Amino acid sequence: MDDARRLGDDRYRLLVQSVQDYGIFMLDPGGHILSWNAGAERIKGYSAEEIVGQHFSVFYPPEDVAAGKPARELEVAIEQGRLEDEGWRVRKDGTRFWANVVITALFDERRKLQGFGKVTRDMTERRNAELALRESEERFRLLVQSVQDYGIFMLDPGGHISSWNTGAERIKGYSAEEIIGQHFSVFYPPEDVAAGKPARELEVAIEQGRLEDEGWRVRKDGTRFWANVVITALFDERRKLQGFGKVTRDMTERRNAEQALRERRRLVGHLVDAQEVERRRIAWDVHDESIQSMVAVGMRLQLLASRLPEPHASAVGGLDESVRAAIARLRGLVSRLRPPELDRHGLVEAVAGYVDEVAGRWGLAHSVRDDLTAEPSPEAAITVYRICQEALSNVHRHARATRVDLTLATVDNGTLVRITDDGVGTAGGDAGNGHFGLIEMHERAEAAHGWLSVTSTPGEGTVVEFWLPILPDVSGFEP
Fold first, then answer.
1. In this structure, is residue 233 part of a structural domain?
2. What is the DSSP letter of 52?
3. How wide is the angle at C-alpha 238 spanned by C-alphas 234 and 241, nearest 5°?
4. pLDDT averaged over the chain?
5. What is the pLDDT of residues 175-211, one digit of tens each?
6. DSSP assignment of 411-449, as one string?
7. How far is CA 147 from CA 164, 166, 383, 384, 411, in A?
8. What whole-number distance in Å separates Cα of residue 409 and Cα of residue 416?
């Protein structure tokens, strides 16, 4: 039995001696070191020969020794049976490390103190990691707290406010002291509260992980603002709900600007529609009345010329030629007012016919390239045609160009048109900025919910590029 106990003691001593991650050693009742393991040597830097017999206070910083900390820890261990502490300790080379220390008082069967067992672990890396984490969390907290443009705050699982940042105070008007602890439904209009919207939003956030919403919210003073809200459900590693993160942004100015833009587009759209209706009416009146009347006059002049002797017949023939020229000019006017090719053959042929007509008359080399894979709506087609008319007119009046090229393509479910000339160009990149024709082109494109850009380089020419959706947006052309 004694041999077995000795064998067990030897194995236990071997185990303790071999441990690397923990410094395990014995102290006598006065605090002097009696034993030393490999872990203690690795952590503290002393060999057994160097340290056995010395007082364990050698491991404490001078300020702790002066304050009597080593002796006080032994007293607590005797009174309570053990003591656990974390703090700075000193290695042989004088460097400090953060240690977790457990001191256990060792009593014999008669409760007589035989000494102490001491286990030390170097926790420096863990402490540094924890400090870095705390510093990171503090920096993040300061960041969130300082954000002015977003209200960022936390809710508990029941929807009560548990944190509050500067942005939330600026947007909603409550100080942290006033609002923390209240239910977040205080920000919703009475009709939304009555409809159960706050609770429903939390339910959706729990089910889907997050919820995004735009709608009216209420400030402390009772005024309303248009808010973009994101609510994120916060779960721990066991998927237990810990609360919600809520980010609110005041979008009132943006909403007002969007509404103003929509209203402007609607008004411009009405103006464009009214222009087209008036153009169509004038074209029909000219075609059905003026041209037909002049055709009748021409036929009578021809009949009269056939019955008159010379030189009266030649004079009447000259009048007939003047009438024919006037009819041709009126037909050209009708075509410009409401190009029949748009209704008969589509956008490309109408634009190509117009480019051939005017570029040929102005002596410009020209080309029209068709890369369309989808025909735009009649509303979009007439807008494309009108912008092309104005752009080509600008080339004729201002560019001093020798060539103009036009490309139509289907891009992003819309019609992209590029008109390029080799004229003189302008400085500043935006040709004709402020010119009435350019303003009208921009307004037409925007009214159709598209865009237009004009870029120009001195000596290299100008590029007009615009895009319109294939189908009109009814909100821009509502009656």
1. yes
2. T
3. 30
4. 85
5. 999 999 999 999 999 999 999 999 999 999 999 999 9
6. ETTEEEEEEEE-S---TTSSTTTT-HHHHHHHHHHHHTT
7. 11, 6, 45, 46, 40
8. 5
94: left (phi over 0), alpha (psi -120 to 50) or beta: left
Which of 287, 303, 338 is the endpoint of a domain? 338
Helix (H) or strand (E) holding 469: strand 461-469
State pLDDT tens for residues 221-253.
999 999 999 999 999 989 999 999 999 999 988
Q: In what order do the strands lie in the sheet with 451-457?
A: 365-371, 403-411, 414-421, 461-469, 451-457
Q: Give residue-wise pLDDT tens across range 300-359.
A: 888 887 888 888 778 877 887 887 888 777 776 766 666 666 767 788 998 998 899 889
Same domain, 187 and 307: no
CA angle 423, 426, 428 (to 5 degrees): 150
pLDDT tens digits, one per residue of 10-56: 555 655 666 678 899 999 999 999 999 989 999 999 999 999 999 99
* 263 dihedral zone (left: phi>0; alpha: psi -120 to 50; beta): alpha
| Single residue among 88, 123, 158 that ends a domain in this structure | 123
| Length reported for the chain | 479
Rounded CA-CA distance 170/219 in Å is 10
Question: What six digits make up the tokens of 21?
Answer: 């991650």
CA distance 235 to 284: 70
Domain that holds residue 159: 147-250
User: For 288, which DSSP code?
Assistant: I
